[in-house]
Prior knowledge:
The structure holds 3 protein chains of 3 kinds. Chain A is mainly α. Chain A has a domain of about 200 residues. Chain A contains 11 helices and 2 strands, in the order ααααββααααααα. A two-stranded antiparallel sheet of chain A has the order 1-2. In chain A, a hairpin with a 2-residue loop joins strand 1 and strand 2. By secondary structure, chain B is mainly α. Chain B has 2 domains: about 280 residues, ABC transporter involved in vitamin B12 uptake, BtuC (Orthogonal Bundle); about 100 residues. In chain B, about 75% of the residues lie in helices and about 0% in strands. Chain B starts with a helix and ends in an 11-residue tail after the last helix. Classes of the chains: A mainly alpha, B mainly alpha, C alpha/beta. Chains in contact: A-B, B-C.
Amino acid sequence: MIFSFDLLINAIISGLLIGGFYAAVTCGISISFGILDIVNIAHPAFVILGSYIAYIINANFGFDPILTSIVVLPAFYALGAGIYQIYYVAFERRGQESLRGLAFFFGLLFITEVSLVLYFGVDYRYVQAPYIGPTLHVGFIDMPLRMLVPCLVSLLLIACLQLVLTRTFIGRAIMAVAQDQLALRLLAIDPTRIKRIAFGISIATASLAGAFLIIIQPVEPSVGRDYIGRIFAICVLGGMGSLPGAVIAAMLIGVVESLTSTFYGPSWAPAVSFGFLLLTLAVRPAGLLGR
Amino acid sequence: MRTLPFFLICLAVGAVVFGAAVGLGNDYIFFAGYVVLQYVVLSTAWNILGGYCGYVNFGTAAFFALGAYSTVAIYKFISEHDLYRMPMPFLLLIGGAVSAVVGFGMGYLTLRLRGAFFAIATLALAVVLQTLVVNWDYVGGSRGAYVIRPEAFPLIGSYIRYLFLIMLLLAVAALTIARLIERSRLGYGFATIRDDELAAEASGVPTLRLKLIATTISGALMGMAGAPYPYYIGYLQPSSTFGLDYAVNSIAMPLIGGTTSWVGPLIGAILLGSLQQVATVTISSAANLLIVGLLLVDFVIIAPNGIVGLLRDRRTTSAALAEPPLFTLIYIINLLPMYFLMYQGGTAEWIALFFWAFLFFAALARGWAIDRRWLFLFPFFGALAAQAAIAYSSFSLTVISVCIHAVGVLCGLITNRRLADAPN
Amino acid sequence: MPQTEHQPTSVATASLLEVDGVGKRFGGFVALENISLSVAPGERVGLIGPNGSGKSTLVNCICGTLRNEEGSVRFDGRPIDGLAAHQRTHLGLSRSFQLPRPFASLSLLDNVRIPRLYTVEARAHHSARQIEEHCHGLLREVGLEEKAHHLPRDLTQVEMRKLELARAMAAEPKLLIADEAMAGLTHSEIEDILTLLVRLNEQGVTIILIEHIMRAVMSFSRRLVVLVSGRKIADGPPEAVMRDPEVERAYLGQ
């Protein structure tokens, strides 16, 4: 373990950049798990789906992956709305969400992942874009653009999402549905419709997150599994429904992972986020900025 | 029936099974049978915590692997110090003990939290343990570990027969334990935790203590199932041993079989386990997992109480399929694999029957709900057309069969009558 | 706040339940503020107050479902603040839930058997037959014996409330808190439940009755406690409490 100041700073910067990306993957879970209390363990699979869609369009037409994912947003939203409707009718209404609802999402995770394997195979796929490759050098700090761009767009995404949640009517209805469904009903708002919209938004973010992912690293279907623990760790650590909390937690985990990887070796990195999760759950389930 | 007669009957059945397997002469049946029996143990173990108490454990692989790696560690120790080989029953006990301790510890940390958090924590545990093992060179690290299987076992024959027998006895033990719990005060307590933990506490049930008991027993059984595994497989790799595949199977089997009694995991494991053995050989191991995922989603939506529930009470089942979004989903997730499997040919076609059965059932239920009792004819003729298409290699017949299905779905969905939002 | 005399039972009787300065907040919302209450063995106490006044929160704090941030609770002479809910039930504190929470997958008989198995039977040892008979008896007292082998989903709302009560009684408590057990019942059904509660009281069970049905509360209670917006504003004989101007204001003047 050679300690050098350069290495340390670069590891931290790298961690912050990847943390920004982690936040994008997690913001969907902050909505579906943090606010709606739905344990959508299949979220990473939808992210991977987003990656593959970006890949197909990029490989065949050369379109920018991030722009592609924005175009595809409505489709993901519709997918999310549809899945919520099924989840609601089959589980939430019958009060079986804790066991069977969970198993449902688990099944979806597998179905999505294995379908991708059957269709695309297990080869790593990657995209081409002008900002993949060059690195920004500021003094001794190296910031690969392929990490900087997704990080910045991700923070922009989360800022927009936070504005929607706090300033728009629908957004506030979403925050309210977590706390008092009866009050919403009395205002002649259908909680189910609000939740459906929220879940649709949650899955829509997966589209963008998928584009970010395939810009940062090559993707193959089982890559999603690493993210299951990460996103729930970040969501819990950041205080469940809090988006700013998720950003902070994401950067924290990103930095610790990066430092661990740099100074102890990459084989220890997976344990970081999951270890964080266990610690948070054991000690302070309300998270850093918890409700 | 009291427990002791049950145990003896199970032993007797086990003896018959073993005898039949020996009689078949082919050692392959022992290899395949071992995996099925292993899943009987894993599903029964999972169900004690998941089905009885309602706490989902995604970390089956972790407990399984703990048992396996305990064996590897002991094996290494024995080889290095040139000691006498440790008998399998002891390995089982040690593997079980290690898993039990870890299960207890993890439970103590996380069982105070809601079920959802517990489930996620089990996932985290699996990864943390996997990382620890991968970085522990004594048991081979990421390179893996080799365990040399002895040639034969006295009196029983090849070593694989011995392993099969061990797993058979373990399965009998697991089923007996599950049934014993089910009928005892403990089982009632578990059921209250599942139904309403708050009310259970108020009724005097020490919920935390019971949950810890469930986690410990469940973990112990999973560890015991893992202990013989290194000898079975010969070469142990962390990535596959800790894989999510164990999790999805140990969850799917009880949910498909039925979670409220010991029979469910048994049926689920035998059915799904055998199915997978066939599918892995005839199609591919990836398709095998897809089938498990699809069946899991199918059953969880259509038959929440599994096969056992279907046999006992068909009421909840039909009610579900009457809803348009579920009807659509069932159609989509069963139609595609059905065609895929039918075109694979051979044994895969028999598996396609399962998915066709779901389509048929869905059309039947939906047809009854919207007063179009003839709806089930669509999947019936659609499947016939598909079969004919394969038999005569005719593309036009394939198109016809798809059209029949499409029309069936439309007839099932387009209706003036809105179903009342009936609370269930 | 006006504190009228407790119903004199015996000068030397220690109180069964002692709530001392209990406070509970949810985030910024103060649900309970400085609640002090003393219940002697054998008393019949009515607890009333407008919706949202904190009655159920108080019950939850007493029974251990929620943890109060301030104050302490003593039961039968010992402090029970750190104890889990099931431990308090073992000590003899039992409650029925305002919104019935039956064990949905178990029969009515099993629903009633559970508390027995885990409280009474932990100390005594009756045969399975005796336990079953006792459970049948409990169901009979609330008029649910014919449905003993049914599941809770086959019950009407009213029957579920009766099941709640039967389940609370199954633990053979020293103190029973009945949380709105009579909502939606007919006149005669209310009479039945009242008779049942009176009989329980005569057998030595202390009862706290939380109700909105004033007729029932007035006829049953020997003492009335009024909770408004998380504060206790009255505590004394029913007629005196109802004439209290602050209570009148709370119920009529809002």
